[in-house]
Records
---
Amino acid sequence: MNESRGDGTLTILLYAQDSKGMGHVTRNLTIARHLLAAYPNAVAFIATESPIVDDHLLPERCDYIKLPRRLIPSGVRETHEEAVAGKDHFRDVRSNMLREAALGLAPDLVLVDHEPLGYRGEFRDGLLALKERYPETKFVFGLRDIMDDAGKIRSKWREKGVYDALKNLYDGIAVYGSRSLYDVGNAYGIPSPIQSKLHYCGFVVREPPQADPAAVRFHYGFPQMGPLVVATVGSGVDGYPVLEATEGAVNRIRAKYPDLRAVLVTGPFMPADKQALLQERATAAIRIVQRADNFQLMACADAIVSMGGYNSVYEALVVGRPLVIVPRCTHKVEQRIRAETLAAHDLARWIHPESLSSRRLAEDLEWALSRDREAHARLVREVIPSFDGAANLTAYVGERLGWAPMGGHHGGEPSPMVEPT
Amino acid sequence: MSETLGGTSTESLGPNPFGTNGWPSDARSSVGSPNSSKSPDVRTVLLYAQDSKGMGHVARTLTIARHLLAAYPNTVAYIATESPITSEFSLPKRCDYVKLPTHWLSWADHEDDTQHLHDDRAKLLCEIALRLAPDLVVVDHEPVGHKGEFRAGLFALKAQRPSTKFVFGLRDIMDDVGRIRAQWQELGVFEALETVYDGIAVFGERSVYDIADACGLPPSIRSKLHYCGYIVREPPRVAGAEVRQEYGISEDGPLVVATVGGGSDGYPVLSATLDALDRLQAAHPSLNAILVTGPLMAADQQAALRVRATPRRRIVSRADNFRLVGAADAAVSMGGYNSVCEALFSGKPLVIVPRVRRKVEQQIRAEIMTANGLARWVHPKDLDGTNLAEALEWALQRNQDVHARRVREVIPSFDGASHLTAYLARWLENGHDRLSSPKELMPVEQAA
């Protein structure tokens, strides 16, 4: 217990860096929910750049600290040097804020997601200062399985001193994945003394929603029979080509599957003109919606199309549905590796965005629709035994910290929480 | 300003803002100069605002930010707040926010803890202010922050960066003036107004409420006062017929709109409104009403109201209250600044049931508007269907045009944000071209 609180309160600080999308924040909220359910005397703070706009997502006893984003007026043209100086300045702003927050909160546990020293190393000072002032603080690094090209990660980690931090700062490394699917120790060249700190927790997904396929079909005006395709593209910023191709693909295979229905979710951030283009092509059989509980829709689907983000992919897998992945292939290859890995296990098919066409997508959708649902679900369980990442993490933290779970929820079972519908 | 923070001695920051609590003597040295690394073309505005309950302060601050950013294209704005900025609000472009930990204070049981945590938050704010190195700081409502938490940060910033300008934005009525004066004395607000602030923007009318007299401001501070007028957010387009259609309300008969802000304490007002409507039924058989509970009203209270809904009485949980009031013939609301200003801006006769529990702010506002013939008010302890029906009867009897004219006589403008933007030009322009006059960017006239 740290000196700042003598009242038996456990303080958890979660750092979730998320420059685009909400994936990291969503995962950290799931983790916070599990930890807080297991430890009724705990409070949690999530430090993040993302605004948590939906109050309902925050569990009780959980608050967040929002870091500022660097803003540049569109009229301002920066030279490369100015841009670097500006970014450095901003890292400094955030770094100091994180440091003050960490020292002020004096957490008992710090859980750092994805970037062991924070974005551009912004949390390094804070972590070290915290360790120095409160040596009893526990530090856990939460590692999403696939991050990017492993060689690139290794050289980045070497350059930034991440291996030192893993060795000297962190008490544990929780892997939100499965060793059989992706061995992070090998991939990221974690030396054997540090490998003993690795703990595979399994994938972290949100609490699965109550799925009522009949109600969902009714909601979208679909008949109760006939296969259903659900396509999601995260927040939607870059998802238009995927949904455009999906719409084409569904129409192509309708001759073969006359009862085929589809729900395409644009996400709130797809540009309005693109949303309008899709809306024009909506029919009684192909619904286009801006927002939905994607997880719930997936649970009612027979086949799923999504991009390659961690949450989308593992939500599709946890409900055991065949999946077609169109990974984002940007400067990072994370999503492509995820797609390839799952395809190699026959759990998905994938299409490179450069070869994306409705014809290709139709082919893969046919594969997905032809899969035997139960056999596919069995295969998912064989390859990925657990999606209980958050529960396992909670148990792991209990062991590591000697915190006895005090909640009435054994095994980290979350208490009922309000999920957006 | 070329000295780095790490190299700045405690002395050069003036009195150590944190006593002996370890700052800034242990500030690290690896810090680049905050100013030299900022693009010289970019102006940074830091706004401080928070809501203890409801969302009025943050909403108003966002309106201000929107105006400033529209007028000054080379400006970026950061809002420091402990309030979550939820999906109810949209952030303008070039605007982001920094959220302080909210429960940091409230979770502490003991006074020592509270003090300790309070200091920590003060440090956090100080860090943010020093590192962002803003050109302009606009502080809403609490001149040295909530319980003085921004005081050290303001003084430190002033010492480190003398070119930064500080403006305190003051809602007209805050509370009983005696209490405000005592609080300000205790928190050192007068000193801050004297030495830190370059200007004090009042979001009200002097003729309606003279803040200098009320707060007993000395002449040296009075000279910094600038009345900007009331601030309302950009008014939505209002088409009465459209609103009625949307809510399935008949086109004949007057419409009463009742709102209670976030709703957590609004149940008695809406319940009494329904009682009042029952009483008015005989005299106004075609009277319509929309009651907005607000998202924070307890679910069972919302349910209790909903069972009393009829085709002419709609009960909804959320709505754009400003738009509804624009479509109304008479309004019922509590006494918050935004609710009252929005009803007045729309020129609608208003019945106010002020919140009176902790502060008398809303009661004073209600009294003043009533004294000017713009509203009637009912004290919560006298709140019942009969009293509210009487006040509503007055509102429904008012001639709308006459009433709207009366509002303009008392309150000539609701362009507070435009006037503030123009007022800040002396500090923000400084060789930087303004896009155009802020008024051109304001949609206020369109809907008026």
---
Amino acid sequence: MTTPVNVPRISASVVLPKPALQQVFENLQESGFSIIGPTLREGMVALDEIRTVEDLPRGLRDQQSPGHYHLRPAEDGQWFGYNLGAHSWKQFLHPPRVTLYSVNKNEGHWTLQRPEKVAPRYAFVGVRACDLQAVFIQDRVFLGEEYRDPYYGRRREQIFILAVNCSTASSSCFCTSMKTGPRVSTGYDLVLTELSDAFLLEVGSEAGSEMLRSTGWQSATAFDLGRATQVLQQAERQITREMNTVDLPQLLYRNLEHPRWSKVAARCLSCANCTMVCPTCFCTTVEDSSDLRGTSAERVRVWDSCFVLDFSHVHGGNLRPTVRARYRQWLTHKLGSWIDQFGTSGCVGCGRCITWCPVGIDITEELKAIRATGER
Amino acid sequence: MTTTLPNPEIVARPDPMLPNAAVIRGIQPEAYGISTFSLAFQEPPVAHAYHFQPGQFNMLYVPGFGEVAISLSSDPASPELMGHTVRYAGVVTRAMGRLKPGDIIGVRGPYGSFWPLHLAVGKDVLIVSGGIGLAPLRPLILSIIRDRSTYGRVMLLYGARTPADLLYTGEFEAWERAGIEVHVTVDRADENWSGQVGVVPMLFYRIRVDHTKTVVMTCGPEIMMRFAIYEALARRVPKDAIFISMERNMKCAVGFCGHCQFGPTFICRQGPVLKYSAIEPFFGKEDF
Amino acid sequence: MSRPSVKTNPEHVGDFLSSLSSKARSQMFSLAENVAYEEGDVVFRQGDPSRYLYVVKAGRVAIEIHLPSKGSRRIQTVGPGDVFSWSALIKPYTETASARATHPTEVWRIKREILISTCRKDCAFGFELYRALACAISARLMATRLQLLDVFAVP
């Protein structure tokens, strides 16, 4: 008689009946994780704290195009049949508002206080391949050799990742061009592929293995694995948008005066939506405030955007006073200089900037136009 | 792509955004609207651990107003007293202008790259500066004077808008005696000015440059630096022997806030001192 | 502060002399007369007929423009190797500014007629002279533009 095995080994593939995902949720919560996952908010698949699998936006499909997002019910009732909403996981690792410290003045004597907040333990449920790559990209930004961002670091080292392989693609997606998806290949605790009647889960770590306790998991058969591969192939077939990344960043460095910048600037509202929804954009600023008596002051770090006019303010004015200059900065950074800085592109092909741009600017079209008539 | 000037060890901090308290030991007016603040850390272990290289900067914090990046302008051989030459221009600097000796300012640093004196050993050093741009070069000049025989000819070309805007004028004679050729000019003279009149790049015509052994270090308004580089290149100084100090908006000084980017370069980390050949493709690009 | 160095060889510095070929330079010296000024001496005044092309040998000369009710404004200083008073070669051959020695100064000066007739007879010399003049005037113009931009002005 073989010893009963309660949890699968690392790198095993198992199948679960779909309702058993609730047990995974409970295992996570018992281990002290707060679950962040997709849920329906104001007509969009948002990311927020969720309690049970009932909070998941099951049976929905999204339609996306430049400047448009629309949800509709899906006939097949799939649990994860939609793609991405405006939210990305960066708001949980790199929060939009962080109190850095406060200072109290007492008879000319200063005391500096840091907020005594314990970093939350998050379990991210439903992370898509592109978004997971975005987390790794932000790891390179914030967890470098010389300086580490402790606000990011403390949250990052505690997170549990239950990733999901996409079964569909929206028209904004171009992860295949950026080599970030649709398959989740690394960096997960568990990765889930939705089959018609079950979930196939691959175990990436000991923590992932533990969370499958008491779920009634069974080893996946070759047939199951085959079906999972088909799901991914189906998603990949639906990707229509593409980005040619050859000769970046040099192509952009050579074309800083290309006429296309003026053309896109005529459309761009400099609203900063793209930077808010982009899962890798990381710029911040610091806001200072004090009480009326001037005896205590606080510094708060908040998200910022290179589209804000004052972003490049120096004594004497703003160094990027035109929308043209600011759009050029965003695109040449995202697709170009990011590579020189961090070794990878800053873009993961999630398509959010295309969907959520109010005037429908498409980053892939802009690059295509510059490549077509730019200096070689 | 970007310059890889070596950085000295930074005092390790659990959180790079946290400042230490420093006392204002003195405020020395230098020119119209410009004063040098001399600061000393309150806690002895912090003061002992702190040292900087010429060209680096600190982030100075005034509670309730914010932080500002200010180059160190004092002698690196005496780091227990940190000098910062400040122009009262924005919210934070004007708040500093209302402080007095004995008041506390938050300080964190040093940050950034530094003037590569190690590349100038045995060579002529040509320092070209304008206005408050002389501040981050003063520690360089003091370091050179301390070790004068290591370098060849050392020339300072310096100018400001008017005679009242010149910095550190009381030290020029001492610098000359220490073997630095000091050439000074102003854009606009007043009735009492008996010195040279004209822009800083024109001072190149007062000196002879040996392009085979000259290193240029320049800091000032970007357009002044551009023309100084032009004059240096016209005299065949190699592009990788020219070093500039650039300024950009800074919120964090540690490469996280994104504000100081200039192409792929983070001015707070790979800069502010940069090798000209490394940033040449972007330098002078309009609105970049 | 910043006394002009007596050791500076005017042939190696300045915006004019070093641009000439050594042959043209020697020709110029042979045509020129040496004149010395004391500190404060006026070399010429704004409005004077422009008789000579000047090159500073040693010392410093201030170029000044007089504004009615504001007095003389020093707009530029020139030193060893620099040329001034090219109005001698440009109609209506009138000084557009005054020149005053701010330190004990020596200059080379060449009479306008001699210079022009030499250029006519010896085209190679003429080419050298005008080329060096173009360099000097270009540098002076660029400097003037920078002065106009007032790059140090507090916004």
---
Amino acid sequence: MNSQRVSSLVKKDLKKLIREPAILFLIILFPVILTLAFGASFGTIGGTQSTTYEIGVINTGSAGPYQQWSQHFIGNLTNAEILKISDYSDNEMAQEDLIQGKIQAVLLIPENFGQSCDSFWKASTDPSLWVNTTLQLYLDSGSLFATQAIPPIIQQVLEVTIYAGRPISVPRPIQIGSPSLVQASKLTMFDYMAPGIFAYAAIFLTMTVAQSFTTDRENGLLRRINTTPTTPTEFMMSQMISNTVTALVQVALVFAMAHLVGYRPNGDASSFAMAFIIVSLFSLCNVGFGLITATIAKSSGAATGLSFIFIMPQMFLGTFVGFALSPSAQAAGKFVPSYYVTDALTSLFLRGAPLSSPTILLDLLVVSICSVTSLFLGILLFRKYGRT
Amino acid sequence: MTLKEAAIIIDNLTKEFEDVTAVDGLSLTVEKAELFGLLGPNGAGKTTTINVLSGLSEPTSGSISVGGYDVWKEPHKVKQLIGVCPQDTAVFLYLTGRENVELFGNLHAMPKEKLKKNADGLLTKMGLLEDAKRQVGKYSGGMRRRINLIMALVHDPEIAFLDEPTVGMDPQSRRAVWDFIRELRKRDKTVVLTTHYMEEAEELCDRVGIIDYGKLIALGSPAQLKAKFEAKNLEEVFIQLTGRRIREEL
């Protein structure tokens, strides 16, 4: 392999990226603008703004001898900076506001709440004497964060104010569902979206590679290069290098933009290195898809349309759009490589998983297999049917 | 790399497409340092012949030796010897003129200094030195044709295939290209030139071969052909041999 040939072809492709406005927009500006727009819309610019959840409370235990318990509990809920408490006199009105999205949760304190607390304190070691009760909590099912963040917050306030921090293993007379351990109060919608956006950016390489090959083919440039001593291996190597460089620049820019809008993921330098490796592999997978598209497409115009065969499923099933899909659509996502890129980046940056975790290794393996397969198939098909 | 024997030997070359025989039993030899003109009406098989000679198209039958090497058995060696100027301008529009030229020099693995020297020399001869820093997309049609030619010759090939290199050029540019082609011959380079301009063939070529329907129908120097067909010029010979009917491109 002659490095002079490969490097000159790589330089040529990178110049194309900078000088062709349409490609510059699609590959660089579009992901950057997308990240900024999503970050500004769903994130916390600057990372210092705190999230607040609005909760409607109906206190049916506000009368009687044990009323101070419920008032004490509501007082502590009000003192939690992350919650904004609104009092409702009846459940119907609160449910109406919940449906309209004015509040994110409704908490119904039962009549016997105070009695239950009192029974616990009178015989805290004898559950047979407790008056058991349940706090009713209604959550906005359309809010990812409400469903994940509010139950543990209320549970925490309940623990502190009613049980005075007794060990969790001890049974309780008051139940509030199964609180999640995710510290969702620090996360924004954008934190969930960002890994998918990183994968999303690389997907469009399919289109640019397909367009580039078909345009060069239409203009006789592939044939012309074929009259030089450049071997097919050198040519394909140059394509892989230039597209990987493009993908890395793209991801670096998207990371930078995400950082700018307040995205502060978990993970250290090794997590970032792993993320770049996975995205690089994924970019090669899309180069393969681009070659397959270029083989099928008769013209660059057709290549643009046909590339969506690969772009759409990956975009909808495997990137930031995916978490809002139905369970069956999410299951279908497992058949597209972008799903595993998003999953790996989510594990690295959102869940703080170590590099050696089985999830990340499995994702890396799947993305690697997809890349090798699509690239091999793409090169094979393009060399056989696509060059002329 | 230098030539071992006759520059090009074509023996009974046939190239068939699905329902068309583009080249039909063509045999001819082009000597080293010869400027050979391949003439013929539209669709006669000129470009197909060039494509087969430059390794872009596989022959249906027959054998072709370029620079002493079989085109299909030793393509890499052949590609080191040849420079191909395609009929349709094939240039990267987003690259500058110089970048296009240097790209093809690099694809031939030329040493940097030699590449710069050759590129400067060719750009100067073709009147493009001042515009070499501009992107080719902003060039006129004639300028693109000239860059198209320079890209084929920057590595100083032993054998040049020039497929209608002066189409779309103004008379001044055409003359400049003619001078340049003559210079190639003086430097013992072998040139195969296809053209529709009979005066161009008459002006430049040592010998011409006229092909029609893929067959070689006349071969000789312009003077020999004019004498043989008692014609004032090569155009008359051409019309006598191929007729006046307007042909469609295949």
---
Amino acid sequence: MMTSSTQHPDRIRISGGRVIDPANNLDAVLDVFVADGNIAAVGTPPDGFIADHEIDASGRIVCPGLVDLCARTREPGQEHKATIASESLAAASGGITTLCCPPDTYPVVETPADIELIRLRAEAAGKARVVTLGALTRGLDGEYLSEMAALKKAGCVGVSNALRPLANTQVLRRALEYAATFDLTVFLYADDHWLSANGCAHEGKVATRMGLPGIPQAAETAAIARDLALVEQTGVRAHFCRLSTARAAHMVARAQFDGLPVTADVAIPYLYLTEIDIREFDSNCHVIPPLRTTEDRQRLRDAVQRGIFSAICSDHQPHDPDAKLRPFPSTEPGISGLDTLLPLGLRLVDEQVMKLGELIHRLTAGPARILGLPGGTLAVGSAADICIFDPELTWLLDPSTIKSHGHNTPFMGWELKGRATHTLLAGRLVHTL
Amino acid sequence: MSTASLQLDAHGRLKHFLSIEGLNNQLLIDILDTAESFAGVTEQTVKKVPLLRGKTIVNLFFEASTRTRTTFELAAKRLSADVLNINITQSSAVKGETLLDTLRNLEAMHVDMFVVRHTDSGAAHFIANHAAPHVSVINAGDGRHAHPTQALLDIFTIRRVKGPDFGRLRVAIVGDILHSRVARSQIHALNLLNTGDIRIVAPKTLVPAYAESLGVHVYHDLEAGIEAADVIIMLRLQRERMQGALLPSEHEYYELFGVTEEKLAVASPDVTIMHPGPINRGVEMDSEVADGSRSVILEQVTHGIAVRMAVMSMAMHHQKKVTQ
């Protein structure tokens, strides 16, 4: 699919690395053989394999390219913030080979032409696969269903209304039913619009002290309770995006136990930051849903470890500087996250929240399965989307090292450990450190 | 940067005045004492001192205000400063100019101090963070966050009436705590002075989450809340909040939370009645209470000038040190 003009060898041997492929229960020091864009073999070379190029991965980890469930490239419509080209470059340098974009671009992703445009731009950039969610309702207006069958045919990996509210519960029910007709996964943001309206911080002690309009926990849990009832009613496959509260994790766990077809994810900043981080009106910590309590953070970490959340995403939202240069409530929410997804993930392993294999699963096979994509694995015959990283390499996140156009991250200035040294996309080297 | 390090210089003196949080007890008392010395000035025939002669102060108001802006203007003029009033409720915002652009343009006119009111919590912090090093910022109210000069003038008034020992005082704040920057600043100031008992009194719809964490006792019944109170501070109830999902009607609010002479019977006999103004008579309290002998509502207004003179001169004093 890639048309970039860069020279690339057809046959690559990745030697001496610790290969971790959770989808195949593999964790061993092995060589990986790539031919014609695919994984040709793992361990023993195929007959007559002669490498055009060898990558020495000793001391490094070789895993599937990361699959990011939610990244906004800002294209089309907000190219002053970032572009598909700039952000797929940032993805590649962060070991990410697949980006999934929500449909809330300008214009909204609601027709096959919108999907085609994004696909063409991504191919021209040639650094990462970019897949899209289609709009659940026309123009995300929350009232009229989108042409989901056409969207699916054009290649969208699911449908979502992003953060926009639906007019009423009946529209939601019909939208879920219609999506289920075409076996489309619906990506739901658990937010009761009325409870969260005008809020910009978790309704808790910190927001009370700072006088910031709050978003209560119930904005999330009331929505999940409603959505779960409708999932049960309609039989649709649903994915809850960016959950932020302990209670929500508990509700999803319960629904999974009851056999409902629901999955969920968390964005990595929520595994580190809490309401306390907004104390000095740090607009880089202005996110939706808001950062919750330390108790919530702990429970979210547990839920990822236990697999209740089968994916960790970056929830990448690059901004131009002006978007954050305002008083806190007037700033645009979101954190630029492609550069930090892998190293912040690895820090969870260092902090003994989960094992390395579990982490890599949540960053590769887990999200790939939610998206219904064949990737996220090093199985023989699959596309050679590969991330090779040095788990011990420490580096400073600063304006000179960050690759995303969006510099809006509260992790700026952090010393991070672990960095992608090589990224392969369909057997082609798209990043070397 | 923390609030303390943002509003104080390396010697712990005022550089900006953004919130009561971040002040220490001694600095708060210094401001009150300085205000006390200015209170005399406002009572003289020639009500001016030359402390800020040649300085330019801009009242930068992004939200409508008459009382606060007027007292800041008077305070500045009595300190002999030049004052410029700029109301940006709509104009620049509509034209698309950002807050930062507005600030830079005014700085280019060699302004020494901004007095800022804004609808966003944290706006004064934001401006202080981005202002040129020689410029001081005074918070005249930001969103629901802080209104520190109002709180100080209330504290100043209480100190004048009740004396300096706050430890033996029971203070009840009645009304819309949820949306009130005044209440938040008052609570911080009262806690800084180790007030014996701080209470807030309101229906649950007007109390913020985890209000106790501010260091107050929460009451939902007026008579229980003001029992044996030495000071009752009523908050203004915004008209638009009187009907709808927060409160059913003015009538029911007055029935339950409006202060009348009759209900005051449970308070301390020498209770002091305060209100930051403007009053909704017959909603927060009846006229008998507002105009009664225990009301100090007009004194609050007078004291507002002295307190603002104190804060402005102390923050400017810092500037003098910078330039020397």
